[in-house]
Design goal:
Order of helices and strands: HHEEHH
Shape: elongated
InterPro entries: Conidiation-specific_6, UPF0654_domain
Protein name: Conidiation-specific protein 6
Biased composition (Basic and acidic residues): 20-36, 69-83
Strand content: under 5%
Helix content: 55-70%
Distance between the termini: 28 Å
Number of domains: 2
Number of strands: 2
Radius of gyration: 18 Å
Region (Disordered): 1-45, 63-83
Pfam families: Con-6
Number of helices: 4
């Protein structure tokens, strides 16, 4: 699977390239809007995370023996607040 940051960067480059057709620019803009990318500068582009995956990752960390008790408590607090 392609890196979402690289995909967004390529689409943004398409928008700013004077040698690209208007049709290609419209297509790139449409993909940026519909594929869950928040627009901003190239360094600020973030792929929107699936909340269920975030929740699963937090729960997995709670059972990971390599995670400190302090971090686990922080994760429990976040899970209670957000989910």
């Amino acid at each position: 699977m392609a890196n979402p940051g690289n995909v967004a960067g390529g689409l943004k480059a398409t928008l700013n390239n004077p040698h690209v057709s208007d049709e290609a620019k419209e297509h790139a803009e449409h993909r940026l809007d519909t594929e869950g990318f928040k627009s901003g500068s190239a360094q600020e582009t973030v792929h929107v995370k699936d909340p269920d995956n975030v929740k699963r990752g937090m729960k997995a960390a709670l059972h990971n023996p390599n995670v400190s008790e302090g971090k686990k408590e922080e994760l429990r607090h976040k899970l209670d607040e957000q989910f």
